[in-house]
């Protein structure tokens, strides 16, 4: 039952903690089998990939037909509503602009001791993206995962999506074409992660794997982490909305339902300083659900994990929000920027009565792949950083060697590493004869 | 037997591949027990931590004495050679300077459609660092792991190091004091990772765990990844040296041994375009080993994984280096910067005949925690980024809503998400009445 909680009541802290920790992310029983699939395909290549695809997806794979052709992509583009194509293109441009601006920059300088220092970012050679089938097949996710890699300058971007059903949803392939994805394969689940991590000739391996997926995909990604990079460990998503009474309850209700309709495990919480407004939002949500104006998952999520929390003042909402470190915070108040500045832990913040999170899902520009389940305490959303790596640079001539060398020898000796000491000391001797 | 390989010979590619892939990183049998330790301490708190410490380290823990006191830190400082203290302080300053400069910066702007966009980096609340005991107990590693967290602005930096033996190596505690670490606990192995990830009252949990360790520590870190952030999956380290004949063979030999003496699984490879010089380096290495001028691990590493590779020209060394994507590349040639620019995959590059990797281990400034085992293809060294996270920002008024809204509604409808569409459409209607 959806809660109307008052932050001023004695049991509130315990209730709020239960609300935050109540959602499960269990993946029991999946790990051993995912591990077996990975090992099998690593050792057995394409033949093993084919066998697992038959077993799990009921679709056999051949090296000749596993890759989606240009003709299939063109057919998908043609099968889409032109308005959808135009909107995807619009979104792609805005996402690209944002991510290009957020590319990390190089630096190199000579310090006061004459030591050259710096770093350089380079894109990975190849990135892989998993696009799930079924309920969570969103063309917007294809854009959000592929375009940061493209903006980073990755030369080879690969996508895998379950076979069989991919032509049922042409917008997925259309988004892949608009994003400029270089290779698309009809391979699903843990076996797709194996093929991307280890390769399965003719499929070459990639360096980084991103993209959402079910428990099989998430578990397989976690297992290959270390051999390749992965974007994140994703769980069910959430929105915290901070709103005063000067909002239309029906609009805030729609915002809460927009999160809830993603997934029965999603969490939508409204913080408001006006109990009357909070009650109106609760009523508006009930109306939306009864009228069938949301997907069926919304009701499940809202009844299990939704809440309206009446705070004593809006600053208290900030404190409570930081405890949850949510994926999204939406601030619909007077002067939302001032409140946004006080938030320490959030994947993304949406500021203003006219800035719903749904715009961020599609085309505001920032990525919609964001840390969930409190991971915004330490993790960031998907960005060009995920598809680039930094090489540090150091160089020195005589001056820098003289400045750093003696301390280096002292520390090497203190650590009991004689060849480290010799590596520095022999150079000092070559330069100064001592 | 250490190899002298010629890149011009027919079997070279296979030999080189075997050389790169020959090192193991096996941690078999560790995972199940590490998982049990983590689950036990997560559920049982400090009492479970105490029990595992007794069982594994033979040292019981009490809430009163587990934390290193200020008096113990002062005693450690006093027990160190003042020259070592001065060198650690020097190193700390240079590492801090470099890492402060590499802090990512915030950005916020209004785009042509009137949409406010940006991002903001904030430090995590708490970071934990593991400092191993035994052979790999390096004060330089304490600085390299703690100072990026401090430079990032992390308010609470915690260190754990095995109990019992920590007072045998006062430089470790001295380095912790110099780095300004806030809390130090005598807890070792997987149980330390558990205490940092989940807390064990009076020890509060952290958000990110960094630092080297044995198979127990590495495995435990990988298992807690997702609940907290971890720095990397580390394996044995390596250096690739690219040197022409205008170097002193004894100096290059010392550089090779400096890497080899870290670990029997380390890898040192010299690429040179002069076979005669290559042979001289081989001889100089043999002399160093025979004369006992390195640690005993150096001989083990060199005989198993070392090599001198004679390339046809130095550009070929770049190509071969990128195939290995090594932790360190050292370039001792004429115009090393030109060669460095061509390298795509390396954790760190050292440029010039007077710039040995050993300076980077201690006090050049860049971090010495770097991706190993080919992970430089996709991973970066430790930096302030590890201890900060990015929150994306978006805001809009009427103009931006009108510009983005209709496309957002189109995409929400195409994805079958009615509440997403309503969240945007209701605002458009409120503003424009349509």
UniProtKB/TrEMBL annotation, chains A, B:
It catalyses: L-histidinol + 2 NAD(+) + H2O = L-histidine + 2 NADH + 3 H(+). Zn(2+) binds at residues 259, 262, 361, 420. Keywords: Amino-acid biosynthesis, Histidine biosynthesis, Metal-binding, NAD, Oxidoreductase, Zinc. The keyword Amino-acid biosynthesis applies. Substrate binds at residues 237, 259, 262, 328, 361, 415, 420. Catalyzes the sequential NAD-dependent oxidations of L-histidinol to L-histidinaldehyde and then to L-histidine. This is Histidinol dehydrogenase. It comes from Candidatus Phycosocius spiralis. The lineage of its organism: Bacteria, Pseudomonadati, Pseudomonadota, Alphaproteobacteria, Caulobacterales.
């Amino acid at each position: 039952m959806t809660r109307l909680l008052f932050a001023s009541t004695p049991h509130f802290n315990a209730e709020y903690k239960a609300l935050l920790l109540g959602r499960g992310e269990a993946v029991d029983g999946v790990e051993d089998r995912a591990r077996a699939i990975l090992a099998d395909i690593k050792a057995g290549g394409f033949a093993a990939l084919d066998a697992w695809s038959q077993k799990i997806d009921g679709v056999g794979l051949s090296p000749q037909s596993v890759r989606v052709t240009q003709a299939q992509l063109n057919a998908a583009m043609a099968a889409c509503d032109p308005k959808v194509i135009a909107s995807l293109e619009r979104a792609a441009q805005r996402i690209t602009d944002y991510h290009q601006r957020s590319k990390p920059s190089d630096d190199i300088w000579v310090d006061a001791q004459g030591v050259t220092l710096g770093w350089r970012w380079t894109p990975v050679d190849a990135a892989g993206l998993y696009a799930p089938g079924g309920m969570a097949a969103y063309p917007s996710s294809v854009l959000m995962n592929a375009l940061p890699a493209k903006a980073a300058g990755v030369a080879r971007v690969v996508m895998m999506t379950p076979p069989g059903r991919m032509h049922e949803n042409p917008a997925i392939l259309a988004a892949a074409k608009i994003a400029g994805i270089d290779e698309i394969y009809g391979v699903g689940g843990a076996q797709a992660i194996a093929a991307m991590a280890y390769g399965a000739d003719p499929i070459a391996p990639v360096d980084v794997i991103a993209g959402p997926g079910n428990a099989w995909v998430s578990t397989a990604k976690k297992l290959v982490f270390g051999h390749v990079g992965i974007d994140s460990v994703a769980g069910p998503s959430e929105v915290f909305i901070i709103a005063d009474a000067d909002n239309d309850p029906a609009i805030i209700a729609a915002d809460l339902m927009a999160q809830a309709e993603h997934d029965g495990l999603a969490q939508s919480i409204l913080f408001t300083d006006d109990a009357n407004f909070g009650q109106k939002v609760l009523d508006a949500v009930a109306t939306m659900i009864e009228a069938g104006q949301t997907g069926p998952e919304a009701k499940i999520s809202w009844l299990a994990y939704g809440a309206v929390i009446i705070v004593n003042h809006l600053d208290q909402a900030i404190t409570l929000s930081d405890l949850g470190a949510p994926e999204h915070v939406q601030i619909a108040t007077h002067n939302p920027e001032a409140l946004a500045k006080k938030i320490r832990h959030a994947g993304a913040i949406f500021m203003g009565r006219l800035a719903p999170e749904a715009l961020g899902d599609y085309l505001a520009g920032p990525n919609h792949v964001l840390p969930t389940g409190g991971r915004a305490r330490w993790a960031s959303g998907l960005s060009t950083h995920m598809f680039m790596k930094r090489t540090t640079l150091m160089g020195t001539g005589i001056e820098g060697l003289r400045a750093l060398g003696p301390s280096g020898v002292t520390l090497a000796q203190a650590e009991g590493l004689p060849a480290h000491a010799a590596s520095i000391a022999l150079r000092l001797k070559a330069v100064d004869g001592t």
